[in-house]
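Changelog-linked ticket: NAP example.
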Amino acid sequence: MLIPDFLYGTAWKEDRTASLTELAVRMGFRGIDTANQRRHYFESGVGAGLAAAYRAGVTTRSELFLQTKFTYRGGQDHRLPYDPEASLSAQVAQSMASSLEHLGTEYVDSYVLHGPSSGYGWTDADAKVWEAMIKERTAGRARLLGISNASLAHLEQMTAAHKEPPAFVQNRCYARLGWDREIRSFCNERKIIYQGFSLLTANVEVLHHPRVTALATDLKVTPAQIVFSFSRAVGMLPLTGTSSAEHMKQDLASRDLVLSPESVKVIEAIAE
Ligand SMILES: NC(=O)c1ccc[n+]([C@@H]2O[C@H](COP(=O)([O-])OP(=O)(O)OC[C@H]3O[C@@H](n4cnc5c(N)ncnc54)[C@H](OP(=O)(O)O)[C@@H]3O)[C@@H](O)[C@H]2O)c1
């Protein structure tokens, strides 16, 4: 399976989800991130956008990398994709069945636990959910598994408790935390792919930093493109959730931008 070098994020798009998903695919994105969490995502809108792109001959299912998530009751509103009275493993199975229906597919490329159940550590509930996710994978409904919003403690406990480490960690990436340095190095050592979100919105100070704006002027690119190019240079798989066609184009063009090793070092330490 080909893992794309950019993920298009579909959160917070509500009624525009279908048209923006279709636009993202038309613009060249081949990785799509969503969640079966109606509170922040409109997963069936993603499916409608993909169906429109398939109908128009823009792409096919097999060329795409589709990622969705299982979200605990606590992260949902009243629009639940499962019976809250059912066991956690039944909730995972129900949420997956609903995701596949929303997305018009028989499998997802990546299935992600949206966040552990407690901020303090890996719980029995998380272990049950993870084992249920592995079952989904074994049954062929997911190709790879991941976890999101995880701390180092979560990851250490999770990898100690289960034979199988995640293929992905998806986290909000703060420059002031060395761009999530500790977790990125945990991931690097284990060949886990680190997916970074909020690369622009969590790091506004970087976008305005004189070293970054000067570099952008020099290279005739935007500070946002510098940040995305930097993220890839340090081994991340970035997400963008732009609603603008122009920004989609710029974000994808950042793949051709190569920063010098010195620039990468400067940006890595810029907000510490
Ligand atoms: N796992 C989780 O808990 C979690 C949490 C949050 C997000 N996510 C995922 O990550 C995705 C991305 O979310 P995000 O938090 O990174 O924020 P985002 O929704 O992608 O917001 C990015 C912001 O940056 C702007 N932007 C994008 N490209 C730009 C460019 N080239 N130049 C200038 N501005 C640009 C966008 O404005 P324009 O729209 O005007 O371009 C937007 O305001 C979400 O859709 C979701 O799939 C996951």
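Closing comment: Example verified and attached. The chain has a mean pLDDT of 97. The chain is about 45% helix and 15% strand.
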